[in-house]
Amino acid sequence: MVSISRFGHDLLRQSLRHVRCRAHAAGRSPMTTAASTSPHSADQELALVDKWKSAVIGQKTVLWDRMDARPLTLLDQTVRPYLPPTYPSLTRSTRVGDIVGGTAMPPAAHLVYFPSPTAEPDLAPDGYHADEAPPEPFSQRVWAGGLIEFNPLNPLRVDAISSQTKSIVSVTVKDTPTLQRLVFVKLALEMSNSSGHCLTEYRDLAYMKPVDLGRKIVPHVRSPDFTHVVDPSEILLFRYSALSWNSHRIHYDSPYARHVEGHPGLLVHGPLTCTLLLQLLHANTPPGLALKSFEYRAISPAYCQQQMTLNGRWMLQRHKKPSADDASVLCELWATNNEGGIAMKGVATLVPSP
Description:
Helix 3 (69-79) runs antiparallel to helix 4 (234-243). A hairpin with a 3-residue loop joins strand 3 and strand 4 (180-193). Strands 1-3-4-5-2-7-10-9-8-6 form a ten-stranded antiparallel sheet, with helices on both faces. The protein is built from six helices and ten strands. With 354 residues, the protein is of the alpha+beta class.
């Protein structure tokens, strides 16, 4: 399972180091944030988080969804222009034009299903789900990483009635001299249909007091076996926000992203980067292999209208090509931003197709 403290600590340590450097150059304090104006003492903050943790740990929310063809069809139309020509086509109905029933969901397509029935007044001020967030002053969130475990024997399929059970499985508070206090929240989302278990996703979120997050350039030293360059547009981000029912304002509200959270522009969704990486892998997977899992972490932000490069490298002996004869195959996937730094990286495990 993903180590959330390691993932979140790496991401925030790199970002905040950059913040301190910029602030020092500008002659101002690097932490002119809610940390200095919080109405609660450190002990009171911890007590509030502990109280919230006691209330949410163990609670489960079950959502049902008919895996309708239309969201998958629209997702395919949204991401296909950003994928290589080798990305497999999906069979469509001749009458309606939607993807036909029974089609196995491509990797990460589940992210546009099971929308939360949360009314706007019940959302957090940043537009995201308030029920997943600790109490104030930990109001700023970053997607730190995750793990998706697929069941190749029983994938989610178009038109199948399916369920998602969501729970918060851990809440961890971490104090460091440089990062101040951080709250890490790990979600588990288990998805099933009438044939049993289909997929489990562990989602790692890091919450902090409002801070101007910068971007640390961490280059990747290995050469990819396959690569693809994309230029995320505002339309791509808007469409993905709509399809995934994600109203987090940093993805579509430019004034909010710039003036409230201190970003230079709109952020590319972590789940969208994850989706593009897995679809790139899908386009380059040899016959006879199926995706079993993908464990990843976010390293630094990727922004709209800034070039992003998707990369993959087979973790095999030199000159050896992956095949269905292997018991399992590992593939390193990573996305780099326009400055050459890693935005996201992870390792996918593939096994022989059932």
